[in-house]
Structures are given as C-alpha cells and as structure tokens.
Design a protein that fits this description.
Strand content: under 5%
Order of helices and strands: HH
Radius of gyration: 51 Å
Low-confidence stretches: none
Shape: rod-shaped
Structural class: mainly alpha
Length: about 120
C-alpha cells in the first residue's frame, strides 16, 4: 500500500470519528437543555403549589377566626318636647299660627291651609 492511500484512509477514519463525536456531543447538549427546561418547569410548578398552599392556609386561619354572634338591637323611642316661646315681636298670619299651635300640640294639621301669596303680606 502506498503512503498516500494510508494517509487518506487515516483522514477518512478521523473524519468519521470526528463526526460521530460531534453527533454524540450534540445529543448530550440537547438532552442537557431538555433536562434544564424540565427542571425549571418543575420548579415553577412547585413554587405555584407552595403559593397556593400558603394562600389556603391563611384563608383557613382567617375563616377560623370568624366568630358568629347573634345580637338583638332594642330600639327605644325617646320623645322630647321642646318648648321655646315665640318672640313677641314676631308677627305671623293667623293661618301660620294655627299650624304652629297644631304642631306644638301634636294634633292634626288644620283643614284651613295658609294662602300662598297673601301669607305674610301684613308684615
């Protein structure tokens, strides 16, 4: 065999070995990247589960602290009668005075209403 043929065969073997090694390294790299992505996804899911667990625990604690009480509110009515004398200098029409006196007495409003435009005209 000629030296050039041996050299060519050696180059061919080295080329095949280089390609095989490169192909293997590429496969390892893809596998490693996939493993890293999977681990990141698992970490995110674990974090989400822990956050949900914390929220559930705090919610349960808040619900446990709720105390139901039944109370009755007694409503009492207080009636106050305020008596303020009218100013003697105040001059009101007769119809207005009837309404004021009826309101003070707690009685019904008189049937005669105060006329609209003539009320207070004699002031």
């Amino acid at each position: 065999m000629n030296i050039d043929t041996l050299r060519l065969a050696a180059y061919a073997v080295l080329t095949v070995l280089g390609l095989a090694t490169g192909w293997s390294v590429r496969g390892w790299k893809e596998g490693s990247e996939e493993a890293i992505r999977l681990q990141a996804q698992l970490d995110q899911q674990a974090l989400a589960r822990s956050v949900v667990d914390q929220v559930a625990a705090s919610t349960n604690q808040a619900i446990a602290q709720i105390r139901v009480t039944n109370t009755t509110i007694y409503q009492r009515t207080r009636q106050e009668v305020i008596r303020e004398p009218m100013d003697p200098a105040c001059r009101l029409p007769a119809g207005w005075m009837r309404n004021i006196n009826a309101a003070r007495a707690g009685g019904p409003v008189p049937a005669a209403a105060v006329p609209g435009s003539s009320a207070g005209a004699d002031r």
